[in-house]
Structure formats: structure tokens, C-alpha cells
Amino acid sequence: MHLAVFGGTFDPPHNGHLALCLYARERLEIDKIFISVSNNPFKQKRCAADEHRKRMAECLSSEINLTGSCSQVSGWELDKQQPSYTVDLLKYVHQLYPHDRVTLLVGEDSFREFHSWKDYEQLFSLCDIVVFRRASTETSAAHPDSLKRKGSIEVFDFSYELSSTEIRDLAAAGQSVSRLVPPSVHRYIIEHSLYR
After folding, report:
1. Dihedral of CA 159/165/170/174: which sign?
2. Where are the alpha helices (DSSP H) in the chain?
3. Is 153 helix (H, G, I), strand (E, B) or coil?
4. Could you state, in order of their start, the residue ranges of all structural domains in the chain?
5. Are 5 and 90 in contact (CB under 8 A)?
6. May I ask the CATH architecture of the domain 2-161?
7. Can you give the pLDDT at residue 134?
8. Which parts of the chain register pLDDT below 50?
9. Among 4, 5, 68, 9, which Cα is nearest to 37's?
10. What is the 3-state secondary structure (H, E, C) of 100-137?
């Protein structure tokens, strides 16, 4: 099985997250998407509580599954109640799926700091890495040839200019975010009066 790991704070999950998962599934022939909800070390005033973020990630997963894909949500990082690192998450995933091929899905912004991640060189023995780049930017500086030689890194252009911060700000201002988030996420935000 080919498993993709997609982590984030998902505060809230938006249409860009959904589109990226669906694109990765088709382009990379992914069998299962493992969505990991991470701790938010920079919690701000309008951020949703952990249980809400996990539930919204489950809404995202249900939207992915509507398309015939298979995804699951993990709260393993949240349950740790301490800083979580990608290398630890991938070791955990390998415990769950010891015989499967694992690909880490990473946004361009996160990948720019890749060299500063904890034990980043170990990641190459744990997974392939796919970076999703905004089509208008150049990512080559973020992954020098020395990194490419260590393991598998692929870069795909993927433009979907959405920000969870902007969505929270719009919701706080009383504006509709229905076109920016999947329908089930929008319903959840309304039902629980999030970001007000």
C-alpha cells in the first residue's frame, strides 16, 4: 500500500487542503491518506480548541472519502501534549504500517525550514518527500542537490492561495467562509460558533 502522511494544525481545514489531498492521490497513486493533527505552538486568540481541530480534520477526511479515496485522521500528535516532530510522527506511522511505502506531503513554506527539522536526515530512510510549490515561486533553494542525493524529493507546482488565518479573520468579522472550506467543515464551524 502507498500511504501519504499529511500533517497540519487544520485550524480550519480548507478547500486548499482538500484539493491538495485529491491531487496527491491521483498524481502519486496514493492508496491511503493519513491526516495528522498537530499541536499549535503559536495559539492565538481565535484558534479552535484541539478537539474542534481534530473533528474538523475528520470532516476533511470524510470529504476525501466521498471521492472514493481512503483517509484517516490521527490525534497522536495532540495526545502527546508536548512538541511533536515529523521524524517521530513518521516512526509512529511505520509502527502502524511497517510494510507500506510512505510519502510525506509538505507545503513549500514548511519545506523552506526543512534543514532545521529535528533529525531531518532520518526522514529519507522513513519516507519519500513531495513538496507542493506555488507555481509563481522558485523552490530549488529549499532543496539543494545535497538533499536530493540523500533521498527522494519531488516538487510539484500546486497553486491554491488559501490561508487558515484569513479564513479565521473572515469568520470573526461575520463574513461567510462557505466557499473557502469543505461543506462539512463549514457546517461544523457554524454549529460550534468557532472563530467568533
Report:
1. positive
2. 15-28, 50-66, 76-80, 86-96, 108-111, 123-126, 145-150, 164-172, 183-191
3. strand
4. 2-161
5. yes
6. 3-Layer(aba) Sandwich (3.40)
7. 76
8. 139, 141, 144-146, 149
9. 9
10. CEEEEEEEHHHHCCHHHCCCHHHHHHHCEEEEEECCCC
Cis peptide before 12 (omega within 30 of 0): yes
Alpha-carbon separation of residue 142 from 2, 30, 53, 102 (angstroms): 25, 25, 29, 21
Cell (9 digits) for 151:
533521498
Residue-wise pLDDT tens digits, 76-85:
999 988 888 9
**Residue-wise pLDDT tens digits, 136-156:** 555 454 554 445 545 689 999
**Number of residues that this document lists for the chain:** 196
Q: Residue 51 CA to chain centroid, in angstroms?
A: 17
What 27-30 contacts at long range (C-beta under 8 Å, 24+ apart), as own/partner pairs, is 27/156, 28/2, 28/4, 28/103, 28/130, 29/2, 30/2, 30/3, 30/4, 30/69, 30/103
Non-local (6+) Cβ contacts of 73 within 8 A are 35, 36, 37, 54, 57, 58, 60, 61
User: Which residue's entry shows cell 478547500?
Assistant: 15
